[in-house]
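Intended use. Records like the one below are meant for learning the mapping from a protein sequence to its folded structure. Do not use them to infer anything beyond what is encoded.
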Amino acid sequence: MDVSQVFQDENVRTEFLDRFGELAEHAQSGGLEGLEDGLDVDTAGEVAKGMAEGVYVPGENPGLEAIIERFTRPVYLVQQSSFTKPADSFPNSEEIHAQLAAAKASLEDRIPSVGRIELRNHRLDWVGTGWMVTPDIMITNRHVAAEFARSENGVFAFRENPGRPPVRASVDWRREYGRPEESRFRVEEVLWIEPDASVDVALLRVDRTGEDGETTPALVDLMTRAELDDTGIGSWVAVIGYPAHDSRNNAADQQRIFDGVYNYKRLAPGQVTAVVDTDLLHHDATTLGGNSGSLIVDLASGKAIGLHFGGIEGVRNEAVQAPRVHEVLQRVLT
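Structure written out for the chain above:
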């Protein structure tokens, strides 16, 4: 968790301290076993103040940090193209839920446009997340596309395995927990993969008609440079994608936050914590490996502010800025 922004919002900090007794009781009654150290309101107040002032050192109080992360950066289930609070009994921040509720209509418009990239004739069943940027083009990460495609004589082709059929990719716009419905579309072409020295972006051309005759979901509008500059650090966002269990991250933390549910569409609230030149931005929503290629929606405008591509546990999450994605798209299409 990147703690640099989480308590900059005074309302969230006040709610956390007001409800700390409830949170501590939940932890001590078995909701967060092993995190009982430092569960008093005075210590919580000092930690929250240090985070708000930017002087708290991550790792000083891991028990409190785990509670703060689960309370302030939860991960919602996506079902029937809407979002619901986590199913466990852990208390959830009403302040943060209110941020999502205020943007519910635009989020529900965007959720269907995010899908899980699935593979055949490959060691992996699925490989990451993608979302629509034109009526037939899906955006994802370079490192996602590189799992099933390669450059060949100046064009991009699906990888081939000796003695086996070529790898094939599709996108399922559903894959919601507890819901059997699918909406699968064939990936017709790997249109573009940015070079390693550039931003982590790839473009895939998707069939306009799905396996069951449906049409592709709506495209997601990308923020302009001026809009992103006006929004900036501290803006509330939601990450929509498909988190997978990640062996690189703490197993107990993953279980507490994700309730053992992985590989399905989820929505995670957070804030922009840094804007890095004109290429990257950082955010503090909770993500895992399968979130590579996830859509980051600005809650105020409903537009894409970034393309998530990775993170460093306990430090930051990273994304390509939406205007930079637009630059790549325009260059490839012209």
